[in-house]
């Protein structure tokens, strides 16, 4: 069986995060690499674009309380959207916010260090919302006039 390079596999939120997920910090836009020469010439910083969807990439750090290994308790999730997603309001004085990631996909990636080799997973989403927010085709989690983050 041949699997095309770059194949992404959809996964349900509850399957990936059975005890929920928590946003830690803010959502950051991803930018293309800029060399010292580019910086010296004042070249503009360009946003990174997802090669499959053509949408801009943003990164969120997600805490996973169901992770068995310490190294998996915090993961980075790339969010593909036309506009930067806006996280839900913080609950009390807690440093994290419960969220539901929408449009989740995973993609295997081979990693190596010396002789050791293993598979890691790139996790992507098309948007996020607060736990109490209704799931719908339109996301209130994006900046702008109610534009969809999908």
From TrEMBL:
Biased composition (Low complexity): 133-150
Record region (Disordered): 130-150
Protein name: Plasmid replication, integration and excision activator
Organism: Actinophytocola algeriensis
């Amino acid at each position: 069986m041949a699997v095309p390079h770059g194949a992404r596999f959809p996964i349900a939120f509850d399957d990936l995060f059975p005890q929920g997920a928590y946003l830690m910090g803010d959502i950051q836009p991803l930018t293309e690499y800029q060399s010292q020469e580019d910086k010296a010439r004042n070249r503009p910083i360009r946003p990174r674009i997802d090669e499959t969807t053509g949408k801009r990439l943003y990164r969120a750090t997600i805490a996973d309380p169901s992770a068995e290994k310490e190294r998996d308790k915090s993961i980075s999730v790339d969010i593909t959207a036309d506009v930067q997603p806006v996280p839900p309001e913080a609950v009390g004085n807690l440093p994290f916010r419960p969220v539901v990631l929408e449009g989740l996909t995973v993609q295997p990636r081979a990693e190596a260090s010396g002789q050791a080799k293993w598979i890691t997973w790139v996790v992507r989403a098309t948007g996020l919302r607060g736990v109490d927010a209704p799931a719908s085709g339109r996301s209130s989690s994006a900046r702008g006039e109610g534009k969809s983050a999908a």
